[in-house]
Amino acid sequence: MTDITRRRLFVGLAAAAAVVAATPWLFKRRREHDHAMNPAADAHTAPGLPNAQPFQTPLRLPGREGLFAEVALSAPLALSARAAAFPIFAGKPTPVWHYAGSVEGRAVANPLLRAATGDSVEVVLANELTEATTIHWHGLSIDEANDGSGLHPVAAGARQTYRYRIDNRAGLCWYHAHPHERTGLQLQRGLAGLLRVEDEEDRALGERLGLRWGERDLPLFIADKQVDADNAIVYRIGADDWIGNRVLVNWTPEPFLEVLPALYRLRLVNGCNARMLRIAFDHQGQPLPFRLIGTDGGLLAQAWSMDDVFLAPAQRVDVLVDFGALAPGARVLLRSLEYVAMENEDESGAFAPDPMGDHPGAAPMGDALDLMQFCVAACSDSQRRQARLASANVPAALSTLPAPPDTTAWPVRPIRLRMDSDGTWFINDWNYHQVGHAPVFSVKRGSREVWEIRNNMTSMPHPIHLHGFQFRVVSRSISPPDVRSRKVAPQGLGPQDLGLSDTVVVWPGEIVRIAIDFSQPFSGTQRYMLHCHNLEHEDMGMMVSFAVED
Known about the structure:
Layout: H1 3-11, H2 14-21, E1 57-58, E2 66-67, E3 70-72, E4 77-86, E5 94-103, E6 106-109, E7 112-116, E8 120-127, E9 136-138, H3 144-147, E10 159-165, E11 171-176, H4 183-188, E12 192-198, H5 200-209, E13 217-225, E14 246-249, E15 252-253, E16 255-259, E17 263-270, E18 277-283, E19 286-287, E20 290-295, E21 298-306, E22 308-311, E23 316-322, E24 331-336, E25 369-376, H6 381-392, E26 412-419, E27 425-427, H7 432-435, E28 442-444, E29 448-455, E30 462-466, E31 471-477, H8 481-484, E32 500-501, E33 503-506, E34 511-517, E35 526-532, H9 535-539, E36 543-549
Parallel strand pairs: 1-16, 2-6, 3-7, 4-8, 7-12, 13-17, 16-25, 26-29, 28-36
Antiparallel strand pairs: 4-5, 5-6, 8-10, 9-11, 11-12, 13-14, 14-15, 17-23, 18-19, 18-22, 18-24, 20-21, 20-23, 24-25, 26-27, 29-34, 30-33, 30-35, 31-32, 31-34, 35-36
């Protein structure tokens, strides 16, 4: 039975799924954990990590060469999209599709790129793969020609030069392949990296807190991969919601990081194809609270204390975690907590094929999943006192982020997310395989609109990504209980909604309004993509292009 046929069966049970999805007790927060956090224990394997002894490998940090090397974009950079094998797991090397380069004699792969607001960037991509690819600069306010979407594929053997100015405020963006119908495959095989943008405001916060980049200010790039017995990353075109049986953080399987009993800034990126994460820090079965200080588009106006946060594919969160009160030897587990996935596919019936058949050993969507472990090191009394001072130094006002705009007089554009009886995903009545490259609507440059995104109850959570522009979330309504419970501001907004975003999750039955200012320094017609960042949905056509015109 094909995946399309299986999805058609799911629709027939939509009414029952809607009732189940709306039941509040299903969203209760579980704090129980059925495993010990001792990395030396050999009687237990963490959920979703078959044949793996978790938390034995030091976390890969930004370095000078190899995977995850750090590269400043202060000079033109040449990258090649190619395949090569890397020692990632124990045993055989793993073939990885990656962006390779050479910087001052250092070989780099999927480098962590660094730039500052106002910088002019030049990156040349040579495609050494046997199929078309791109570099999409996810999160940047950029023109169509340099956006790197599937509208401008780089053919096998061809080259493309990306030249643009960074007008974004500081934040952790990322870059990845974006070819039509092959994005899921190419990201699963490895074509993605991080882009750190700096500005004076962000540097000032780091100096005030004494958090040096690469020491106590660290990126955590999380991705799950489906890995076979030969350590190869596998993928099947046309499969639903590709989820993996191994977790990589900074290209490190099930890692640990030794930390001081001090304040840390951790910048998390969900680089999974489809897996939603519910991020939490667990100490002895209890949540270690953290402070959310930033989202996709950089710092929030203030910090928010939280126990956990949803992180959908493509989203980023910037958090402060204080290990200062923990004793030497304490262990903290970075987990994705259990949550109700709200995927109606879960009720497909006895005669449908197992949706996990393509993902042997993977934890199902919504199940708890262990990501990495922090081990608290011993330190001197003076170091511990300094750590306490850093935590107390977190300012009440983090940034000069403006308040959300008053959208009372703004025109409202309705956007509906749905699936038809054949299992095809649509944005309004558009599916990219049916409408193609032509923009389905246009907006006037300099105009401002509210997009009201309504997700059918007979659906699943969709992380909706907008190319070329960041936006503000202005309201949530008819939200599921665990989303409503996070409200800290009027109109149903949680802490994660209070910054600049480029990707927003819309849960089944929910209505989310976002405010977009289409001002930009470009001219002529600029085409951009709007799509679900569940990459299998995107590749199945849950994507459209729109135009910005003079």
